[in-house]
Specification:
Structural class: alpha/beta
Strand content: 5-15%
Order of helices and strands: HEHEHEHEEEHEHHHH
Shape: elongated
Helix content: 40-55%
CATH topology of the largest domain: Alpha/beta knot
Number of domains: 2
CATH architecture of the largest domain: 3-Layer(aba) Sandwich
Low-confidence stretches: 59-65
Oligomer: single chain
Distance between the termini: 5 Å
Length: 218
């Protein structure tokens, strides 16, 4: 790794938004899940959540495989546990769902801690997820079709969130601590070793130590 590449990694980490995320509910098609991860990485989201009733996550689409490395996907066993985890952060839970109470997605304040819930390709978010959400948001449609593809809809909403956060200056200063940045950089660079560190409770190296190691090995 070159110094330039190292600085690029730090630049990306310095713009991560730990209080903005997505919960994908039963999004089964690999290319849709991959596209959602790509959009999340593009707006600075480092951790995405999913609930999949089959008990696992399908293989990523090869065209979007790079997003898997940079965005952590946390799979929850049930919708209830996913909601409980996210509320404990705490985050507002906004469901992309057409209902009588849904508001235009652009009317929402995304500078607040927010999780956007998107549903599967066929029927959208479930009735249970819609009932548990704090608010429903909708993308106005002026054509014959009622909704966008789930990955496209997610991208549209996320880039509105990015626009608001850029305007509010939330990308100007790191939102992660130096320790969090070092831990994430180490996980990206040495995933197997990072897993062992997690399992044994071994402390992760700080940024300076990690930089010296990666540059020495280049």
């Amino acid at each position: 790794m070159t110094e330039r590449r190292w600085q690029r990694m730090l630049e990306v980490l310095s713009r991560r938004q730990p209080d903005l995320t997505v919960l994908a509910e039963a999004v089964h098609k690999p290319h849709n899940l991959s596209a959602i991860l790509r959009s999340c990485d593009a707006v600075g989201i480092g951790r995405v959540h999913a609930v999949n009733p089959t008990g696992g996550v399908p293989t990523y689409n090869e065209t979007s495989a790079s997003a898997e490395k940079w965005v952590e996907l946390v799979v929850h066993p049930t919708l209830e546990k996913a909601f409980a985890y996210l509320r404990a952060q705490p985050m507002r839970l906004l469901a992309a769902h057409l209902s009588a109470t849904a508001v235009d997605y652009r009317e929402v304040d995304y500078t607040q801690p927010t999780c956007i819930i998107v549903g599967n390709e066929k029927s959208g978010v479930s009735a249970e997820a819609a009932a548990l959400a704090d608010q429903h948001i909708v993308i106005p449609m002026l054509g014959m079709v009622q909704s966008l593809n789930v990955s496209v809809a997610t991208a549209v909403i996320l880039f509105e969130a990015q626009r608001q956060r850029l305007q509010a200056g939330l990308y100007d200063q790191p939102r992660l601590t130096p320790e969090q940045m070092a831990r994430q950089a180490f996980t990206w660079l040495y995933p197997e070793e990072a897993m062992r560190y997690e399992q044994t409770g071994q402390p992760f190296p700080d940024l300076d130590t990690l930089r010296a190691r990666v540059l020495a090995s280049s």
